[in-house]
Amino acid sequence: MSHSLRNKLLCVVLVSLAGCWGDKTPAPVVVLGSVRDGATDSALEGAEVIARLGSRTQGRAFSDREGNFQMQFDAPASDGAQAFVLSASLGGYRATSTPFSIAKGRTTASSYPLHLVSDALASCTREAGPAVVVGHFRAPLGQPDPDLADRIAAALQYDLDEKVQTTRLVNSKRPGIFACGDVEPKDPERYGSFARFLGVDAFVGGIVSSPGSSNVRVQMFLADGYGFMTSPSRVVSDGVDLNDPSLSRLAPEAMTAVMTALVVGYKLANKPEECVELVGVSERLLPVLPDALVRLREECQAVLPNRGLL
Amino acid sequence: MRGALLIVLVLLGAMVARPVMAIVHVDINEELDRIKELGMPEDRGKVVPGLKEDIDGILAGRILPQRIPNAKYRIAVFEFEDPDHTGLGSAVSALIGREILLSSGLRSLGVLRYFGSLEPSRGHPQSYFDKVDLVVAAQHANLAVWGMIRRDGNDIVVDVQAQIPDAMVEDYFTWKLTLPQAMGGETLLARVWPTRMRIQRARLPAGFAPALQRMADAVDVVRESPSDTARVIARIPKDTTYSVQEVRGDWAKFVINGESGWTRRAVQCTRECAPLLATAGFVGALLSFGNGGPVPAVSKDLSRDAAVVARQLAVLTSLRKKEFHPASYYLERWDDGHARDFGAPYADVLALSSLAAQLQEQRGREYDTIRLDDDAVRKVATDLARASQDDPRNVEVLNNLAVLFRVLRDERRAGLASRLSAAAQQRSDVEPAQ
Fold first, then answer.
1. Which are the contacts of A248, defined by CB distance < 8 A and separation ≥ 6?
2. How many beta-carbon pairs below 8 A join chains A and B?
3. Are the beta carbons of B416 and A165 separated by less than 8 Å?
4. Which long-range contacts (CB under 8 A, 24 or more apart) does A215-222 make?
5. pTM (two decimals)
6. Which residue has the higher pLDDT, A152 or B11?
7. Sheet holding A96-103: strands in order across?
8. Separation CA A130–CA A261 (nearest Å)
9. How far is CA B321 from CA B66, B168, B199, B292, in A?
10. In the prediction, which pLDDT does A146 show?
11. Interface test with B, best of A243, A296, A309, A310 (most B CBs within 10 A)
12. Cα B297–chain centre separation
């Protein structure tokens, strides 16, 4: 073997070894992201964020005051992209996780937003069927009433059943009313986004205030999850005895708002028959059919297959 | 002499007719529990089927054991829901139930009074109309009344609901028109709707509650003779069956556990209480309509649903008497020329009346050779198609449209109506009854 050939072979071996050793070197990786409340979009501080590869924890960080986190770890060397899982957890919230990839020592996205859902909210999300959620009613100081949401939901269920059960709606599509007294959006303006987040047609909540006497004022707010109402519908009852179970009664205006939200839901779900029938039963029971429902009926009638009969 | 003869004849008639007027008190949830319990596989041999079997039995047309088997008519009156604890739930149902029993004019009527809530529960997820339907169907009741009492400020609001079971509708609240062979010979059908209706929303001053309670208590008092001063011998207990032996003015003679006594009709139920009796009058008249009676009167105290049903029954009455009028006859008289406000079922019965009137004009010709002018049939079909836009899954309307478009040889619209009808029926067939 000539000297030059020996040198050449040595070079090939060294280059190969260098290549191999190069692949085995762990690459430092930085993962950026944020943790926010899924319903309110507010920043969540102190959430623990963990990056895992398989069952091995690779990195760990906590969200700051703005909900942001930054995590740095050495990712195992690999020829291609590696599939990691990023999970976040915080007391009072359901843990969440999302997959992410690292290729050539870099994450495939510049930032990973993580949304946590509070335990109270998570148990109230609905996957199917038209529904209305009755959330928290804030009681006057020193007069807690934990059953209020349940009572209002029961009253609402009757008001709705009385109407819906007289239509041709099939049971599986009938709207349900669910009490979720622990769900407490801070601001009624957020009720619509809560309804959307929960996957329901409308969200009801309220405030019970005591202006000084034994009687109280009940403010009930209702918003649809479709942005149909420009602002939440507000119904006020004055002079209500907090010890009186009839506190749970719903003013007709609130019921009209519920019906409107459900009708919008049927329309957007491309169920014009249900939409028309629900407006029809509202017409039978309300003294005057609100303009919004009249318009919605016309829009649903315009896409009925029955149009072909004309 | 003539008067005495008349009395004898009436008494003889009464004996032959074997009048039965009875009330049974039943706890609805216990009843459902009992039915459910008896429905377990190991209990198949027992008389009362389970809830599921009950529903299956109803759908299959099987006859289930009845609580007042010898009554020709049975009405179920449910204790009114009372979530605000007015204490009037039982009182209102007692007043209405008794008044229906005594004022209907039917000779063989039993009242089943159910106690317990119609709210959905863990054991019974059905609610309100649906729950009532289950029990009513199992008992083959002809009609049911239930309701809700709520406080509203200084008032008490009483919702009175009624529902007519399908079997009753089929027997007494439908009308059919078979077209001549020259028009295809198919049958058109009109069916009264809604069969689940709020009859009344009565508003009473909350301060009237004690008086209403006393009035309800009074109708349960049994006296020795038909007089307010007669000795009280009993109160009509719950969980018992009793029958009415004789009616004398405002008084009725009941036989309870072999002993007889007199109770008075709710004559004290005046002023604020009186609107509640309008419900009893309407329900009693609905029952007697099925027996050939007149159209129920709709007082101002009753709801729009009651008016809608009464309007259809008015046309139905004419049809039964073979008095056929065009739709315009009714619309001009009542509805300012348009039917939409009273719904597709009203438009449907008007459509049949219009066609029947035009067919009647051709009398003298052999019926099966009559073929109405296409323009006339098209006008009826167009009106019905418009009504279908407001009630898109009304099977009777869709079926009738399919027939009429076939008469007009409009296969496209006939096919569409048939498909929509089939789809609506398919959905209602799968409708769970619980």
1. A148, A151, A152, A154, A155, B83
2. 106
3. no
4. A215/A239, A215/A240, A215/A241, A215/A242, A216/A140, A216/A240, A216/A241, A216/A242, A216/A247, A218/A137, A218/A247, A220/A137, A220/A152, A220/A250, A220/A251, A220/A254, A221/A188, A221/A191, A222/A191, A222/A254, A222/A257, A222/A258, A222/A261
5. 0.76
6. A152
7. A56-62, A48-53, A82-89, A96-103, A106-107
8. 10
9. 33, 20, 27, 11
10. 78
11. A309
12. 14
Tokens of A15: 């280059």
Contacts of A165 in chain B (CB under 8 A): 127-130, 196
In the Cβ-directed half-sphere of A268, how many Cα atoms lie within 13 Å? Answer: 15
The shortest C-alpha distance from A52 to chain B (Å) reads: 43
CA angle B430, B431, B434 (to 5 degrees): 125
Task: Kindly state the tokens that stand for B57.
Answer: 């039995």
> In the block, which residue shows the tokens 């609240």?
B173
The sheet with strand A93-94 has its strands ordered as A68-75, A27-37, A112-118, A93-94
What pLDDT score does B3 carry? 47
Is residue A307 left, alpha or beta, with left meaning phi > 0 and alpha meaning psi from -120 to 50? alpha
Mean pLDDT for the stretch of residues B39-60: 38
Q: What's the distance, Cα to Cα, between the start and end of chain B in Å?
A: 60
Can you read off the two tokens belonging to residue B16? 């032959």
The residue of chain A nearest to residue B153, with distances taken between CA atoms, is A240
ipTM above 0.90, yes or no: no
Nearest CB to A308 within list B120, B150, B413: B413
Nearest Cα residue in chain B from A251: B152
User: Which of chain A's residues have a Cβ under 8 Å away from the Cβ of B402?
Assistant: none
Phi first, then psi: what are they for A297, rounded to 5°?
-60, -45
Give how far B378 is from chain A: nearest CA, Å. 11
Quote the tokens at residue A304.
């009925």
**A227 contacts chain B (CB < 8 A):** no
